[in-house]
Amino acid sequence: MDEFINAFSAARMLNAEQIACSLLMSFVLCSVLSFIYRVTFQGLSYSRAFIHTMILGGMVVAMMIMAIGNNLARGLGILGTLAIVRFRTPIRDSRDMMFLFVCLGVGIACGAGTYGVAIIGTIMISAAALLLNYSPYASRRSYEGLLTFVVPSDSGNDRTISDTMELCCASFHMIAMREAVQGDAVEYSYQVRLLDPSYQQELIEKLTTVEGLENAQLLMQRTTVEL
Predict the structure, then answer these.
(1) What is the pLDDT of residues 138-181, one digit of tens each?
(2) CA-CA distance, 124 to 110, in Å (whole number)?
(3) Is residue 48 helix, strand or coil?
(4) Chain-wide mean pLDDT for the chain?
(5) Topology of the domain covering 144-220
(6) Neighbours of 221 (CB within 10 A)
(7) DSSP characters for 56-124?
(8) Ranges for all domains in the chain classified under CATH 3.30.70.1150
(9) Are the CB atoms for 54 and 31 separated by under 8 Å?
(10) Measuring CA to CA, which residue among 103, 74, 105, 211 is closest to residue 150?
(11) Local structure of 155: helix, strand or coil
(12) pTM above 0.70?
């Protein structure tokens, strides 16, 4: 019974130095994580606001943990307040969500005063993020790309084109075919896997030598995206 009453008693009081130290530690460690995020970012829509969210989010969580302390009533009150607030900003990439979650975890650790957990966790997670970014781990399609070209409708060069692609590709599959130039030509789209990434230019050069073939283009897939 006494423990239940103590849970609703006054929370532990922190002095100004402890509060400032916790917030500063959260700022520094979240800044390190945001720097790692910038270095390893390979997406198409970089957001400066998201970097600020990572840093400020960690500091806000640290402040909330210090405000709650060991008081159960405060924790329930803040939980109810946060349940009212609805965050509608979508996070498209799961990797972005993990970086934001790590910064919130750092804020919790700093607010609770467990600086060792915050520092070691930041170092280990940053090292893991760098390792995964610069290693080919989990990449299956680093040599794959989308090949498109246009040939006349009555060219009859299908076999020649296939033989040319076999010289540079380990495999190729037609994924689309549509009429072009008001029906006088056909545009083909192939998913190709090159024997070696250095064959990109060579494949285009060989295809341009095929009679009637035009607009040969090769778009390599990013190794971070599995289509």
Answers:
(1) 555 556 788 888 888 777 777 888 888 888 888 888 888 888 76
(2) 16
(3) helix
(4) 79
(5) Alpha-Beta Plaits (3.30.70)
(6) 15
(7) HHHHHHHHHHHHHTT-HHHHHHHHHHHHH---------HHHHHHHHHHHHHHHHHHTT-HHHHHHHHHH
(8) 144-220
(9) no
(10) 211
(11) coil
(12) no
